[in-house]
Amino acid sequence: MIEVLSAIGDVMSVEAGGYIEIAAYSPDPFESDGSKPRKRAKLDNLSAKEKAQHRKMMNRISAQSARDRQKAMMQQQDLTIKNLANVNENLKKRTQR
Known about the structure:
Blueprint: E1 2-5, E2 11-14, E3 20-23, H1 48-96
Antiparallel strand pairs: 1-2, 2-3
């Protein structure tokens, strides 16, 4: 008997005689207690060294994302400061007339 995963996620067992037995296989998107599905995969199949490498890689990605967000925020704040300085200067010129 050969088990094959079909394109729609069903496990099909093919017998030697050509008969196909279909058993619905759909991984439960919810945990057994009814909570929402996990956002991150469990790393149970990795060794301690692989887990440490994965953690380092994810930390590097997270740190770079934080630096990128901070840089974008600082650039936006610089633009806002320049715009407000121009508005302030224009208002000062108006009041002096």
